[in-house]
């Protein structure tokens, strides 16, 4: 019978292979690496020589694949044309901001640019608070967030009040927030100074509304169903060189 | 200069030692184990023989300590008197439900008993939704949550409405929720069928209110300041035997 660690390793590696097939390479790499680490521990504890040799062979295959992906990502980044596509099906779950782009957030991120024409209404501002929470948590050296969005002409008070509250809260954490209003903005993208560009078809507003205030998934966005949406992740190597 | 992996390993192991000193053993163990894993990788990549030998010696010391803690926890559990105390200072952060007891939640948890006299007002019900989100996420085989709480005499509609909404949402996920009202309840504790008992001095309601709806920490409870509080974690070995 498989022990719990063995199960975890197998589940991580199956996920790695699935993500790999979908060409979601940077996510797949994380699963390969974690899965291989745990599998190596499992192998160390195995007594059955047949099983041990089978698992070792598997681990080597995964290691080779992970190495190959790492090189591929590195090469594409250096050529400035890395591209990863995430398709969110209608009603799919598991796509919180942290799950989608948390792996690109780290202590090396100092500035983040957000272009999203719809940070206007109450729930869109709530999305932005959640976005700020994720970056505050994962980017301890973050110094600046630049937001370009559209002005809410019908109910501007909510927007102005919300944004200035968010700004002053970020300031207390040593993060400056620049806000620019633009009426011609079409793109929805998030740019990290490390060179990653995350383009989300719907911007940050890709979650379905919760059924009620008491719904599982009201707070935890990984449990919230999403609208159909596409996320493209690029790396602009030349951007990274300029920082 | 330390590479990023080395920094991660050192930070995890420093945290392990700090938690170890506070006798927060099960948390400390996780940090030791993750830290040692990463340190082992770092050592493998090192070229400087002096540094390599220094780090290897350190890794062995941490391994010994982790082994010692594992045995200690196992022994105390088997004697039925494992006890871990977490003191939350006034205003401290980093104590979301997931951070505090997420490590006890797993696929082996089938039933959870919650005794908390104050799941009554709007924000207390919100806390309970968040609690349910954490257990839904981490206990994929959960079948039942039993809640014993006090009745809200002043504004009972909010409570009844909130609880029945939560119950029907859990039902859709195959989780039954039993609700019992008790006026004599004093204890605040969460019991997992695996034998763990988490007693929180203030029950689930130990977070300070957010400054505004736009506050960093409105959604992410790890970023929310807490009230001073004490959490005791026990393991009832005999309970585990009965399940």
TrEMBL record, chains A, B:
It comes from the Eukaryota. Residues 2-77 form the MIT domain. InterPro entries: MIT_dom, MIT_dom_sf, MIT_domain_contain_protein1, MITD1_C, MITD1_C_sf. Pfam families: MIT, MIT_C. Gene3D superfamilies: MITD, C-terminal phospholipase D-like domain, Phosphotransferase system, lactose/cellobiose-type IIA subunit. PANTHER family: MIT DOMAIN-CONTAINING PROTEIN 1 (PTHR21222:SF1). This is MIT domain-containing protein. It comes from Artemia franciscana (Brine shrimp). The lineage of its organism: Eukaryota, Metazoa, Ecdysozoa, Arthropoda, Crustacea.
């Amino acid at each position: 019978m498989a022990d719990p660690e063995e199960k975890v390793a197998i589940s991580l590696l199956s996920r790695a292979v699935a993500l790999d097939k979908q060409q979601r390479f940077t996510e797949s790499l994380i699963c390969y690496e974690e899965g291989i680490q745990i599998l190596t521990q499992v192998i160390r504890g195995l007594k059955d020589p047949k099983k041990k040799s089978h698992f070792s062979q598997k681990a080597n295959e995964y290691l080779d694949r992970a190495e190959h992906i790492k090189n591929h990502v590195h090469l594409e980044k250096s050529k400035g044309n890395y591209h990863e596509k995430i398709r969110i099906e209608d009603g799919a779950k598991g796509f919180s901001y942290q799950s989608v782009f948390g792996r690109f957030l780290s202590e090396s991120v100092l500035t983040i640019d957000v272009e999203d024409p719809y940070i206007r209404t109450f729930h869109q501002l709530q999305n932005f608070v959640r976005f700020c929470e994720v970056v505050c948590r994962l980017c301890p050296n973050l110094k600046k967030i630049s937001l370009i969005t559209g002005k809410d002409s019908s109910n501007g008070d909510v927007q102005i009040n919300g944004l200035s509250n968010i700004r002053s809260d970020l300031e207390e954490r040593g993060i400056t927030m620049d806000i620019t209003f633009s009426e011609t903005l079409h793109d929805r993208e998030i740019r990290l100074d490390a060179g990653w560009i995350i383009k989300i078809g719907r911007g940050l507003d890709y979650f379905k509304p919760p059924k009620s205030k008491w719904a599982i998934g009201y707070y935890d966005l990984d449990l919230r169903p999403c609208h159909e949406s596409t996320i493209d992740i690029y790396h602009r190597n030349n951007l990274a060189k300029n920082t």
